[in-house]
Design brief:
Blueprint lengths: L1 E5 L6 H12 L3 E3 H10 L3 H10 L7 H12 L8 E4 L5 H14 L5 E6 L2 H15 L6 H15 L2 H7 L3 E5 L4 H12 L1
Parallel strand pairs: 1-3, 1-4, 2-3, 4-5
Bound molecules: adenosine monophosphate.
């Protein structure tokens, strides 16, 4: 199973990706997590990515596409994966298409989660208190929501046109949302 999980910040992508990963026995790959790991370990990639992440901006495509390409070529990704937080703009969709073409592994589905703006803001605030991410400042949160609306939300149409998009309500009990997704994906 090769899946994308998409939706605005705070909608529960990470939570559902982790449950899907367990259910299908495939890795959940989050570009945000990869960046955060590199930041924590002060790698060259981390130092560069931090400049953008703390402002709520997208890390340049060149860097992001490369980490995805490398990650999808790893052994544990042979039987499938869930990509969380990628692609985030039209050029990343193209890059992913090229990566998957090269690997000969097409996408099975795109899981899109949706929720009202107020619910998202509330969840983001709570997460900021719990996790203390350096990019959970009000300015960075606002910027991320703005980037999502302008650059990422339009990508859903691309996948809808390809017949891959499956949309789910991101509000409700985590387990029930998970069960609904799995029932739909099979
Ligand atoms: P996330 O954990 O998915 O919210 O990602 C945290 C931050 O990492 C984002 O606000 C971006 O700065 C950066 N990031 C994660 N994924 C991508 C991506 N696909 N393209 C560019 N930047 C990304």
């Amino acid at each position: 199973m090769r899946l994308l999980i998409m939706g605005p910040q705070g909608v529960g992508k990470g939570t559902q990706a982790a449950l899907l990963s367990k259910h299908y026995g495939i890795p959940a790959i989050s570009t945000g997590d990869i960046f955060r790991y590199n930041i924590k370990n002060k790698t060259e990639l981390g130092v560069e990515a931090l400049k953008y992440i703390d402002k709520g901006e997208l890390v340049p495509d060149e860097l992001t596409n490369k980490i995805v390409k490398d990650r999808l070529a790893m052994d544990d990704a042979k039987n499938g994966w869930i990509l969380d937080g990628y692609p985030r703009n039209a050029s990343q969709v193209e890059a992913l298409d090229a990566i998957l073409n090269e690997l000969g592994t097409p996408l099975d589905a795109v899981v899109a989660l949706d929720a009202d703006h107020d619910v998202l803001m509330e969840r983001m605030k709570k997460r900021a208190e719990i996790e203390g991410r350096s990019d959970d400042t009000p300015e960075a949160i606002a910027k991320r929501l703005d980037v999502y609306a302008k650059e990422t939300a339009p990508l859903l149409d691309i996948y809808r046109q390809r017949g891959l998009l499956k949309t789910f309500d991101g509000v409700g009990a985590v387990d029930e949302i998970q069960a609904t997704i799995v029932a739909e994906l099979g």
